[in-house]
C-alpha cells in the first residue's frame, strides 16, 4: 500500500501555512508553536532543528518525545472526517494537529484548545 502524500511532506513546508492561517484570524506564530509543542512534547530547540532538517510528518510524529495524552479529547470533523474515528495512527496525529490549528483560527481560547 502506498503511503499518503502528507506522510512524506516536510513539516517545514506546511508550518508556514499553519502560521498564515492563524495570523489571518489575529492569532500568533507563538500560539501555533505552543500547540505543536503541547501536542508532541518537543522543546522549542528540537522543533526548530526538525524544521531545519525538513523532517517529514511521519518521522515528526513517530519520533515525538511525548505525545500529549489529552490529545484523545480532541473531537470533531476535519477534512470531512471525524478525527476520533481515524484508525491509522499517523494520520490521526496529523489530523489532531490540523484540528487544533483550526480551533485556533476560529478564535477558541488557548486553554480550551490545549484541553485544560
What does this structure look like?
The chain has 116 residues and is mainly α. 57% of the residues lie in helices and 3% in strands. It has helices at residues 5-8, 11-24, 29-40, 44-52, 57-62, 89-105, 110-113; strands spanning 77-78, 81-82. It has a two-stranded antiparallel sheet. The chain starts with a helix and ends with a helix. The model has no long low-confidence stretch (mean pLDDT 95).
Any chance you could write out the topology, listing elements then pairs?
Blueprint: H1 5-8, H2 11-24, H3 29-40, H4 44-52, H5 57-62, E1 77-78, E2 81-82, H6 89-105, H7 110-113
Antiparallel strand pairs: 1-2
What does the radius of gyration come to? Answer: 13 Å
Please state how the strands of the largest beta sheet are arranged side by side: 1-2
* Assembly state of the chains shown: single chain
Note the beta-strand portion.
under 5%
Please report the total strand number as a whole number.
2
The 3D shape can be described as globular
Helix content: 55-70%
Let me know the largest β-sheet. Answer: 2 strands, antiparallel
- The topology string of helices and strands comes to HHHHHEEHH
Q: Span from first to last CA?
A: 38 Å
State the secondary-structure class.
Answer: mainly alpha
Continuous helix count:
7
The pLDDT mean sits at 95
| Low-confidence parts | none
Amino acid at each position: 500500500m502506498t503511503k499518503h502524500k502528507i506522510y512524506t511532506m516536510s513539516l517545514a513546508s506546511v508550518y508556514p501555512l499553519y502560521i498564515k492561517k492563524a495570523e489571518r484570524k489575529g492569532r500568533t506564530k507563538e500560539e501555533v508553536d505552543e500547540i505543536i509543542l503541547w501536542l508532541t512534547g518537543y522543546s522549542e530547540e528540537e522543533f526548530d532543528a526538525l524544521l531545519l532538517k525538513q523532517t517529514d510528518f511521519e518521522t515528526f510524529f513517530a519520533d515525538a518525545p511525548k505525545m500529549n495524552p489529552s490529545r484523545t479529547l480532541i473531537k470533531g470533523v476535519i477534512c470531512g472526517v471525524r478525527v476520533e474515528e481515524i484508525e491509522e495512527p499517523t494520520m490521526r496525529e496529523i489530523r489532531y494537529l490540523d484540528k487544533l490549528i483550526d480551533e485556533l483560527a476560529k478564535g477558541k481560547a488557548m486553554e480550551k484548545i490545549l484541553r485544560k
